[in-house]
Amino acid sequence: MLQPRLKSVEALDSLQLFLVYETGEKKIFDAKPYANGPWYGELNDPVYFRTVRMLPGGTGIEWSNGQDIAPHELYEFGVSI
Q1: What percent of the chain has pLDDT over 70?
Q2: pLDDT of 19-44, one tens digit each?
Q3: Rounded distance between C-alpha atoms, residue 24 and residue 16, angstroms
Q4: Exposed, middle or buried by CB within 10 Å (0-12, 13-18, 19+), for 58?
Q5: Do 41 and 35 touch, CB atoms closer than 8 A?
Q6: Nearest Cα to 69, choosing from 20, 26, 32, 23?
Q7: What's the whole-model pTM score?
Q8: From CA 61, how far away is CA 31, in angstroms rounded?
Q9: Looking at beta carbons, which pairs linking 67-74 to residues 24 or more positions away fall under 8 Å?
Q10: What is the 3-state secondary structure (H, E, C) of 9-70?
């Protein structure tokens, strides 16, 4: 099953993302487990983490240096609020 498209993404404190989907669902995704190693470790910088943006058409998210998290992971592992 394909996940619904994103309407918005917002970086929160503690390496969490607030996600709003076209269905009206709202989820909190914890990115801490991803923020390690030379590539994803950059996400530990709070200023950089807040540069997250939604891809055109709401198909996913990315940061300015190219890091991303798979859309199905955001949806499946995000906690509904």
Answers
A1: 99
A2: 999 999 999 999 999 999 999 999 99
A3: 19
A4: middle
A5: yes
A6: 32
A7: 0.94
A8: 12
A9: 67/39, 67/40, 67/42, 67/43, 69/29, 69/31, 69/34, 71/3, 71/6, 72/3, 74/3, 74/6, 74/17, 74/19, 74/27, 74/29
A10: EEEECCCEEEEEECCCCEEEEECHHHCCHHHHHHHHCHHHHCCCEECHHHCCEECCCCCEEC
Residue 36 CA to residue 79 CA, distance in Å, equals 21
In this structure, what token pair is assigned to residue 55? 């891809």
Amino acid at 28: I
**Structure tokens that stand for 12 in this block:** 């929160």
